[in-house]
Amino acid sequence: MKIGDILTQVKEGSLTVDEAERILRKESYEEMGFAKLDTGRKARTGFAEVVYCRSKADDFLLQIYERLYEQNGEVFGTRATEHQYELLRAHFPGIVYDPVSGILKIDPETPRTLSGRVAVCTAGTADIGVAEEAAQTAEYFGTYVERIYDIGVSGMHRLFSKVESLEQANCIVAVAGMEGALPSVLGGLTSRPIIAVPTSVGYGANFHGLSALLTMINSCANGIAVVNIDNGYGAGYMATQINRLALGAGFTE
Amino acid sequence: MKIGDILTQVKEGSLTVDEAERILRKESYEEMGFAKLDTGRKARTGFAEVVYCRSKADDFLLQIYERLYEQNGEVFGTRATEHQYELLRAHFPGIVYDPVSGILKIDPETPRTLSGRVAVCTAGTADIGVAEEAAQTAEYFGTYVERIYDIGVSGMHRLFSKVESLEQANCIVAVAGMEGALPSVLGGLTSRPIIAVPTSVGYGANFHGLSALLTMINSCANGIAVVNIDNGYGAGYMATQINRLALGAGFTE
Amino acid sequence: MKIGDILTQVKEGSLTVDEAERILRKESYEEMGFAKLDTGRKARTGFAEVVYCRSKADDFLLQIYERLYEQNGEVFGTRATEHQYELLRAHFPGIVYDPVSGILKIDPETPRTLSGRVAVCTAGTADIGVAEEAAQTAEYFGTYVERIYDIGVSGMHRLFSKVESLEQANCIVAVAGMEGALPSVLGGLTSRPIIAVPTSVGYGANFHGLSALLTMINSCANGIAVVNIDNGYGAGYMATQINRLALGAGFTE
Amino acid sequence: MKIGDILTQVKEGSLTVDEAERILRKESYEEMGFAKLDTGRKARTGFAEVVYCRSKADDFLLQIYERLYEQNGEVFGTRATEHQYELLRAHFPGIVYDPVSGILKIDPETPRTLSGRVAVCTAGTADIGVAEEAAQTAEYFGTYVERIYDIGVSGMHRLFSKVESLEQANCIVAVAGMEGALPSVLGGLTSRPIIAVPTSVGYGANFHGLSALLTMINSCANGIAVVNIDNGYGAGYMATQINRLALGAGFTE
Amino acid sequence: MKIGDILTQVKEGSLTVDEAERILRKESYEEMGFAKLDTGRKARTGFAEVVYCRSKADDFLLQIYERLYEQNGEVFGTRATEHQYELLRAHFPGIVYDPVSGILKIDPETPRTLSGRVAVCTAGTADIGVAEEAAQTAEYFGTYVERIYDIGVSGMHRLFSKVESLEQANCIVAVAGMEGALPSVLGGLTSRPIIAVPTSVGYGANFHGLSALLTMINSCANGIAVVNIDNGYGAGYMATQINRLALGAGFTE
Amino acid sequence: MKIGDILTQVKEGSLTVDEAERILRKESYEEMGFAKLDTGRKARTGFAEVVYCRSKADDFLLQIYERLYEQNGEVFGTRATEHQYELLRAHFPGIVYDPVSGILKIDPETPRTLSGRVAVCTAGTADIGVAEEAAQTAEYFGTYVERIYDIGVSGMHRLFSKVESLEQANCIVAVAGMEGALPSVLGGLTSRPIIAVPTSVGYGANFHGLSALLTMINSCANGIAVVNIDNGYGAGYMATQINRLALGAGFTE
Amino acid sequence: MKIGDILTQVKEGSLTVDEAERILRKESYEEMGFAKLDTGRKARTGFAEVVYCRSKADDFLLQIYERLYEQNGEVFGTRATEHQYELLRAHFPGIVYDPVSGILKIDPETPRTLSGRVAVCTAGTADIGVAEEAAQTAEYFGTYVERIYDIGVSGMHRLFSKVESLEQANCIVAVAGMEGALPSVLGGLTSRPIIAVPTSVGYGANFHGLSALLTMINSCANGIAVVNIDNGYGAGYMATQINRLALGAGFTE
Amino acid sequence: MKIGDILTQVKEGSLTVDEAERILRKESYEEMGFAKLDTGRKARTGFAEVVYCRSKADDFLLQIYERLYEQNGEVFGTRATEHQYELLRAHFPGIVYDPVSGILKIDPETPRTLSGRVAVCTAGTADIGVAEEAAQTAEYFGTYVERIYDIGVSGMHRLFSKVESLEQANCIVAVAGMEGALPSVLGGLTSRPIIAVPTSVGYGANFHGLSALLTMINSCANGIAVVNIDNGYGAGYMATQINRLALGAGFTE
Questions:
Q1: What's the number of domains chain H is made of?
Q2: Considering CB atoms only, which of B25, B228, B229 is closest to G160?
Q3: What is the pTM of this model?
């Protein structure tokens, strides 16, 4: 609802002053004391709330899962620990935990239909955890995902065999640690927009992912933009935005 | 042409061995001695070659502009200097130079039709040079661009007045220096994918743009990916890829 | 007592040479062997000593709590561990420990009256530990604190609903991790001086809080100064100094 | 004017829908094409707009000075060059330029009355440029400033002779380059809140001011907050906010 | 087999289209689901696959060892843990684990003949783990290795007694932590190419090996190139390449 | 023995060729396989070997203590763990362990006479571990040490009361973490050469001691040189060198 | 000559004590006051002295060229300026200057025969200056060089067409700026040892070559070692060492 | 004069209260408006004031030279420019300027007697400017200096020929850029305390001297402490302090 419409309705009396004030202030959140749950989020952006589990206190996490499950009939959380899985399993027997990606989710009763196509690639096997965070996030938001793992530059022939498959995606998520050259190489071989995800995989002068981040940010190839180190979630989110645009679906599912 | 097709044609004799070898090796570039001009680029990716002028020697630059103009009837260059403009003007009287963005271009005879919609925003007036590199790059590739400048966080009411306009874009390019908070704020207010461009604008602990880069990479808002400091070209390129997807146009114009 | 006064009293004989020397050397501390307890601190600055518990040896910590309790009838410590709480509880049954902020304190018999108004805000729920260190420090020094948590930029409407409340404070403490954009946004919306506290919350290229620190230091908004990463104590202290000035109370309680 | 009031007036007809919309959107800026001049700023925050001259194009700078002079009868700019002074002097004969601080200002006809007290200190003589930016900014906003220069730690007796003078200020601005120890030492000797300004003065491992910035951010003394390297303006601004609070004057002059 | 040859064979019918396509795509890897095992590697490069054990999941590691042992009759892994040794010993009783270097290997039935000569040196005793990774890697690839440990610059006479021995090597691997001066000193005393390996040995401003890395990269001595911090494997690999060249053996064993 | 003398003796026959060669090569170390024990060190430099215990394998450490005890009747080790103490106590009942500094030593039968005077200061109590490493190292080499702890800048009057005591030292070792301002302040108050030791004490932007290191390196005070973060040993060693010079004792005890 | 031989000759009288002392001390340099010219260098290492021209004073440079020309009949200098060329041309009419690489040399009368094969590659045209420093250095030392320029990853088909040519080299020098991915890609396609040279080409977060350096140091491909940013000379030197080994020529020409 | 003495004299009337206050406050400086000239410095520390010329305004510099010449009959300044030399030569015809080190001095009528012995070494010829700053500073303070230049590790035999000479110094100043290994090597060969001076000489990953600084700070050799990058003055100062101690001369000349 646009501001002019709101004011016109106030003037016409079809909206009370109080209600208009609430809308204008956009108080569409639920105050939980320790947090302000963004309940209007899906309506506003087309993307339901995702729970970042890391370092949340046990009872806070439980309350959030309970409240979101009540509201949406499903919950999707990232960066969860084994301990948090045990904790929540007592309350939600159907909860599923993937130790590789740290995703902890309660699936909806009716599985979501996936559409469009996003490719999620990794340079090595150690990058799979981050890639799965990206892939499952995109799937949670309704995107069809093609996984292409372990195609890093140290054995380029593996990558070449997948170029045609990559060209069929609306968007490519390229996950790589160490020197992080994968997005540059993909950028030189395909025409798809690439979301590059540096990972903290490596040792020594990788500086916990800084090396891969700098490589990707400085890429001389075209059509590459970068998210934070290990930020699979962010890549899956933006890949979904692009995939929806390609589907002509706007930003709501 | 797929590899299997090539080989089948070789077997059938409709393609000579030499020709097939050339295609397989993809020698679709022009050897200029000092450079290998990527002449097949537009056919391959839907994006014509753009000249990065900075630090190119005078005669190299001239040769490249001559060769590209001959081939395409237009040339688009970034990061050019006043000196390079003077140099090329002697050969191309119709060449146009924009000192704010450093763009040096020979427009085609028939102006390009612009379609879709990308918003290019800046936090301050000092970011306009980078923003123009992004905007004019996107326009060169056929994208309609809405410019929204000087809406940084130090006077947030300026930004609020533009939110509806931002929501109509397929993609937002957000250009900011100093602390670089603009993309985060836009990410909290709109649902569009945002390409964040940190600039070197600022002083002291901005470390020539590192501060803005880190802010954007660490954004807690969703739907943000980042390109290099001052890389307007890269942002304009990727915004075009996304805009074309939204138009259902694929990656060719 | 000013130096001139001291010397006049010496000349007049109302002060012995020894005593004057002691005052001039300001030996107003208590030598504890491993430490020099600053017993004159409250008289000198209006702020009683606060114990930084982290990495203090058990018996050292105990001696300091005993000595300060004896002297002041209350003790306030920061960055304490569960173990230190167990240790001291054996000697001070009324001691209180807050595991979120790490504050370990023995309250005085008569609760302190709180006056003025300081707002302590966080961007997210993970910043609450640091925010509580700031808030409880300010309260220990007699400041009334308004807590406004979880108003980060990823859901800006939560923040907008609190602007009027923020404007009523004499000073705002803004606590944020990740990209740390909260102080910039507050600086663009309010007229209060802001003490910005970067936190180590986040991952990847946040570099343990460096990203948030740089954002805050480079803010283009006015009226922002920054303390160390996770330094809630320092922010609570300076907010109290400003609040006291606003109360016209000088720097003593 | 509060939102509820605006809506009530719309309902009662004393405010048109258009006008209310404009207020709610807070379009209180003047669109200048290349910039959005924040004309409502002084009313909103009690601080008039200050011009950051560095790297502004000649005609942009001239337009801004003309527009602000027209509106306020005075203009205050920082980081100006000799060239910019020459440029503007042709239009404003009474303009004054201070090459040490880079301040370029047109004073109002009636000099401003200065009140309260802020001390601006430097460690060395090379820090005076930044200190003057702080001092003159504070004076522009109506603050009385006491200048205490060249009291760095390499000759501590110079500092000791000024402690009483420092204690009379409501707020201390401490400007230092190289190792930047001055704010720590002042924090150990006075009870006033200190705004620390690291400068880029020094060489070698000072890393253009990073060394001084880190020193100040890590200070073990109490009551210190830090602004950007060489950011005299920011320190003068915040010192004024604190000084006004101490005067009980709120945030308007 | 060169591309022209392949195509000629296709034309002549001595190679099927399918087979040619497979060769051209170089699909010479084995898809294991979680990984693409590079089975053609030894044929292609003369170096068999080495397993980087760190952070590989238990069953993945086991599958890889099983598959490689089946194929080659030996397996060589680096950065293995005690736990991984226990795990694999249950399946390969003859497996050998060296806790100093973390090497976990199954030796072939017939010991390999070692030829040529590479010197592996360390500055201190704490660098021996990395040095052993280099030495044993080189030995795995058939290189004869001379170990010269604990010859750092703090006791230069130890180094001088070994200069003649160093001159007999085809290549020197110099392993050093802390300030990492050993390769520079060796470069000033010998004429052999030196592969410098910085280690994370040290504390404080060594920044986990960055100090040693910078020292080695900036060396004013000739004939030094550097690999990653603690990368003994990489040094052993390249030393073998150089040793084989010196033996006139090309790059296959 | 000078080279000329050696050669003359060879010519005259009073030295065999073999013996001369050994001397010239200075093979005055004991090869222990994993290490080359520098047995000629005390004769050469006047300082006996000190054992850096950290990360030495158990049996290596034991062998070194045994060999050095046999040779010198005393052993002095730094950075030892509780575990290493337990290990060695079984073999050397008289061994002494100081958990604060990590020093693990077997004292000689006759206590060493201490001479000269070195002052070892700390800013806070958390710096005492590093200070004790410096103090006990200096004592091991025969230096008389005055300990002055907890005189940091946050309570400057504590420092002032010790200035005269500091002036009596030949050399001052100043140990400080956080912002590390202590050496600068001492440099402004005394005329003694100062060896500054940054410590990793602090949090946030102290970057594990980097902040204190940069402060000390950039000090504007005179007569300050810096050793590595937490390097008490290095400071105690160099302080001894200077103290011996002041005693006119040369570099031997 | 080995030490034992020298001493034996002294004993036998065939070598005087003075002469032996001179040899043992290796005083094979020429004292020029401001410098110690390493005249024995070529004899000792097989590589003649190369002049690093940057920032050498005019008369120093002239003296060095004169002395080396006298001695060797040729001189080879790197990083020379136009000004230095003008200066020396007055004395050496036959001197040649290459402004792209900064090489300033006087060729010998008889051209050197080049042998073996080293490939020098660049990612882009802006890297050619550094590549020429490497190529011409290698040629100065007698190595045959194959130049392969502008084969960066943004147009991978250019690189693929050169793989066979690369495989014929004994050693590859890979020069790249920006993200520096070229050596990784080459490492995945060829079996030759690669000396990676990061360049300062790029902007923004390339940090003057640091980005490319980190990429190359962290490469997951095998057989890569790295020299300093822009250090073409160092790469050409080491490539020559390896090429000579492959020729079985040892380290002398 | 000790504090007790002052107070006793006040009591006895032999010192007025005003005078005592002045002494206690140590107002022994001359207020010059822009600076506080430390006139009591030589009396207090035994070292006369040295002028740091860089970036001092012309008239300030002139006033300082005039005032110091008046007081001491000589002036010694560092980091002066050609321009400053021209400026001052008009007033002091006897002034001497050394463009290599930037020292600008007016010698006293009677040349100073030099005593003791300090060795100042450089790794290369480009380090001589910094070394001369150290050497001439030490000479200004009365120290005899032995210069040993161009003995870096790339030609170690040059260094070996100077070891005996180095052993005769009371203190060694070791100046080196690039990888900065010289102090480590000297520390392994001599028993003298070493003041290490990193220089900004080098390129690429030397990061303007950071590389050399880290090398020196992390040195595994004993008896090394470090001053700021290019800080020859600081090294010359501290070397003098140590030299004076060795002469038994205390800290006054």
A1: 2
A2: B25
A3: 0.90
